[in-house]
Amino acid sequence: MLTEEVLVQKFITVVKERCAKVGELLQYCHVELVNSYWGCPPKLIQHFVVYYPNMLFASINDNKDVFRGVAQDLGICQAVCINATRIIRDPASRLKEKNPILWLELQWVAVPTKKGNWGNWHLDQDLPHSD
Q: How far is CA 82 from CA 1, 3, 42, 51, 53, in A?
């Protein structure tokens, strides 16, 4: 069985191969594979989570079908896109206490630095949007 890190790398690689512009967006996102169990007896359900900055909301939302298609082709149930900016700014969120490593990763995604981890933030404007 492939490890979670390998599956995430495969997901990113396939997205880049299928749609280069959408693949470029992933450099500004945090992608992870989440395992959950559902039902009785419990059945493993895996899905990719793409945490994205608020600035890329329109592009990610317009292209979520690409992520879902790639996930299904890799044998993963679903791909879910979540706004990282909203999570870290939510005063009711307990993510910082429950999963501090993920919270720090989302800080990196959601908050641009002066030197710019969003050097190409204009990518959002360059992508075609479905209206």
A: 27, 23, 25, 5, 9
Please state the pTM of the whole predicted model. Answer: 0.81
Query: What are phi and psi for residue 114, nearest 5 degrees?
Result: -65, -40
Picking from 119, 108, 128, the residue whose alpha carbon sits closest to that of residue 21 is 128
75-123: pLDDT as tens digits: 999 999 999 999 999 999 999 999 999 999 999 998 865 444 555 544 4
Q: Which domains does the chain have, with CATH numbers?
A: 4-34+42-83 (3.30.70)
Report how far apart the first and last C-alpha atoms of the chain are (Å, whole number). Answer: 40
Interstrand relation of 30-38 and 43-52 (parallel, antiparallel or unpaired): antiparallel
- CA torsion 98-101-107-110 (nearest 10°) is -90
Q: What secondary structure letter does DSSP report for 31?
A: E
